[in-house]
Amino acid sequence: MSETAMTKKADTQIEPTRQLRSIVPEVDILENESEILVNADLPGVTRENLTIHIDNGKLTLTGTRKLNVEGAVVWEEFGDVEYHRVFSVPQSIDTENISAELHDGVLQLHLGKTSAAKPKKIEIKTS
Amino acid sequence: MSTRWSEIDRMLKTINLLRTGIDGLSSDFDRSYRWNAGWAGEASTPKTNIYDLGGKFEVRAEVPGFSKEDLSVKVQGNYLELSGTRKTEPPQGYSIHRNERNTLSFTRSFTLPADIDAERVEAALQNGILRLSLAKSAAATPRQIPIG
Question: What is the mean pLDDT of each run of 10 residues along chain A (127 residues)?
Answer without folding.
Answer: 54 63 89 92 93 90 90 88 91 90 93 85 85
